[in-house]
Amino acid sequence: MRIDCPLCGPRDRREFTYQGDALALDRPDPEAGFGVWNDYLHNRDNPAGPTRELWYHDSGCTAWLVVTRDTVTHEVHRVELARDVKEAGK
Amino acid sequence: MRLPSGGLIDRSHPIRFSYDGHSYQGVQGDTLASALIANGLKTVARSFKYHRPRGIMTAGSEEPNALVTLGHGAGQEPNLRATTLELYEGLAARSQNCWPSVNFDLLALNDLAAPFFGAGFYYKTFMWPRAFWEMLYEPAIRRAAGLGALSGLPDEDRYERAFAHCDLLVIGAGPAGLMAALEAARAGADVILADEDSRMGGRLNADLTEVDGRPGPDWAADVAADLAQMDNVRCMSRTTVTGAYDHGTFSAVERVAMHLPHPGDAPREAFWRIVAKRAVLATGALERPVAFQNNDRPGIMMAGAVRSYLNRYAVAPGRSVAVFGNNDSAHATARALIDHGIHVAALIDSRPGVQTDLDVPLYHGQVCGSEGRKGLEAISIATASGIEKVQADCLAVSGGWNPSLHLTCHMNGRPQWDESTAAFHPRPGMVPGLEPVGAANGVFTTADALAQGRKAAQAALTDLGLKPANIPLPKAEDGAYDITPLWSVPGRGRAWLDFQNDVTVKDVKLAAQESYRSVEHMKRYTTQGMAPDQGKNSNMGALAVLADATGRSIPETGTTTYRAPYTPTTLGAIAAGARGKGFAPERFTTSHAASEEAPMVEAGLWYRPSYFPKPGESYWRESCDREVGYVRNAVGICDVSTLGKIDIQGQDAGEFLDFVYTNMFSTLKVGRTRYGLMLREDGHVMDDGTTARLGEHHYLMTTTTAAAGQVMRHLAFVHQCLRPALDVQFISVTEQWAQFAVAGPKSRELLNSLLDHDITGETFSFMGCGDVSLGGVSARLFRISFSGEHAYEIAVPARYGESLFRLLRARAETLGGGAYGMEALNVLRIEKGFITHSEIHGRVTAFDVGLQGMMSKKKDFVGKTASERPGLMDPDRERLVGLKPTGPVKQLTAGAHLFNLGEDAVRQNDQGYITSVGFSPTLGHFLGLGFLRNGPDRIGEEIRMVDHVRGIETTAEVCHPVFFDPQGGRARD
């Protein structure tokens, strides 16, 4: 598997660490209640198809990336800097 | 028998080799198989299950029969295919799975009992008693059945791993592959051309097909030479591309030195990871056999292989050869035999009405049996007029050709059935960027192969934005491929499908009859296709028989899954470089060389001194107790550089730290250090450590050794994913600074003997920090303590680490102290109740370790909300306590569990467990830290400790976790 890091270019999967679903970017308000926090911390979808994931380029530029890829075809549709995604969301 | 002329061999270069202890001679260019044929050997192996004599069947990596063992001891390598082993001076091969010899094998008795040994025999027979299966049946069966044996010793051979990148990877160097590589190379693309053979050209070398008006091997050699001298091309012969993976990644094994009598420094094999923007699959096709009674007799081989042996190696597999087929390959073999002056005893074509212009006896029918004692002597032919017998010592068989499309299926693709060629063809797009061409794509003429190779390369070039070179297409043979499917010839007796696993037509029919109708079930029930050849010779035949037995068509029946690797791959090659010390990098501190007497303990990748033995000390505890005494009574020196050090700067550095730590850091004064606790977002403790404020916008965080990487990743996550607006930058400086603990009542005295300017209790009070210098070298000094004593940590640029350590150690020794290792460090911190990752192991909260007071109520921080969940604040949770033994057994053990007195030591009664223990020379008894249900409210209680693993049991008193100097005055004085 290869990931096209926006800063470093296409690199082998072994340079990256996988961290799980990109919804980790959407940290709830401290007062949002345990239900919302429970979803944020523990509940994940397991889609057959497109999914947004967080990857950390630890053997490269140390950027956190949001990788949109397909769990069926393994196609990588989009790789963005998590920082950009987070800032665009505000 | 060697032919008097011809062949792509060097007759002027004889090579001596041995097989089963007998000496033979071959020539340069031979494989072991061709050399064995040249020396007239027929039976070269015994079959897997029935120990039937078997001969060479193919001329390539798909060979099911001729497997041999090379080497002895640790260098022994079994199951090597004689058909791909290049002959070299002194090669010594042995036959396998036979005793006492390949020609007389006692276990051939199995063959007489064959009627009992059909598919599923083991499952049906060895059923009772159950325990006997593992103890008795399986070992006996495994001894009787099998292929080559492993030595059981570590493989001492050298292997390498390598990486390559290219625009176009061409897999296979037959006409299609050579054409694709040349087109792409001329257009300026970076090309890798890989072929498993030692010689480029593929079938051209076996068939001598004319290309561009010249013999095929000459054309191939010229193109290969052309490519080899181009800078943008890497020609890799002896390289099998074994797997196709995501995003243009391919695995390949290169046999670098396996063909050399004296490999020198060259690795035996290299395991390649090749990343290609585009790939062309030009792997050709494999010829398939036809099943008929006793079709496994030595002397019966594939028609295409016979042409290889005649044309490429100039050896004749027989003196009187019969040829049998359902397609034109049989006719080509008959023609080649005649060209080489070999008698063709019969040409048997199963297609009605097909004629030949060759001067050979032509039979319209099917071979239905074979005879012969040590090898083939005669065949039976079923024709319209009855059964005829013909004398022959070799039978060349062709049941048609299967495209070698394996790699196109490695990413879960399935091939599609093509009626006109009676074969599975690759479905387009099964591996993105990989284009099958030529015979691998079901196109069986040389002219079409050349055209497809060029076209695929041009498409790839256009995709990559390169201009095709449009090299001219050479002229070559062009004709239709005519085949009428024939899978098995009806008749009595055993007709073999899978030669390597001894599976017959009857076995497959039995599987269908017993409801193993799915092709995957049939495979597992009969073991067809599960041998090292992975069914390359047998899958299609078995599939067709299964389809017939279940009344379905072949496409309805489907194929089994193709998986990597394409050919058997040695584990040594895959693991290249990762054995022993190569398994993981070693990180050494700057004081490593100055600590040579110390046994090392691994901490992550780091190696740290366990203790520093002195002459006369025979037991590690003696050294450890002495080193603890240094720190409690004088001064000790310890390298603590392995702790993670993260330099954090920026306008918002304080705000950032307030968010990642449970306690406040923005309020910390410059020149001060504070202990911090970090949680995961789920409310459990992630790590702890001290952070110093070096300047208004400059902090230095320390992490535990074990969690340094994890904390760095976490900080990056928090910054980039949660708080990107914060103005903060950080970088690991762990390796840039060497840091040493100077601990003990005489620590200040020691430092003042070295520092350029003396320090005092005022300039460096407890938890103070700042710049100092020694010998003109700038250093950082932190007054922090992990031992509870008056202590410092001094940090210098790493290049001064070793000399500073030697200096500190020598000065400490003059003051009655010295260096201490991890064992003493551990005892010192247990005496003080300080936690490490033994305690904060991922399942504990700040509440559990008694640090809930460090969780600020004034701010949000990572883990705050989740840590407030009621279940995580329950007093009845297992919480940190100290323990000391009270019973007759004075020992505590880490990992032991705690139970109430008088209760059974079973899981239901579990009250907690011990995480750290050490013998305290200061207090004169063992100490333990552990987690106990509602522990802090049970101080003074007596509890039962049971270590089920080590068989140790004692009673212990529950204590406050701080055993020594609970007021902490010694660190502050």
TrEMBL record, chain A:
InterPro entries: SoxD, SoxD_sf. GO terms for molecular function: sarcosine oxidase activity. Pfam families: SoxD (PF04267). It comes from the Bacteria. One of its GO terms (biological process) is tetrahydrofolate metabolic process. This is Sarcosine oxidase subunit delta.
UniProtKB/TrEMBL annotation, chain B:
One of its GO terms (molecular function) is sarcosine oxidase activity. Residues 879-965 form the Aminomethyltransferase C-terminal domain. GO terms for biological process: tetrahydrofolate metabolic process. Residues 167-355 form the FAD/NAD(P)-binding domain. The keyword Acetylation does not apply. Residues 493-577 form the SoxA A3 domain. It comes from the Bacteria. Residues 594-859 form the GCVT N-terminal domain. Keywords: Oxidoreductase. It holds the Pfam family GCV_T_C. Belongs to the GcvT family. PANTHER family: AMINOMETHYLTRANSFERASE, AMINOMETHYLTRANSFERASE, MITOCHONDRIAL. This is Sarcosine oxidase subunit alpha family protein.
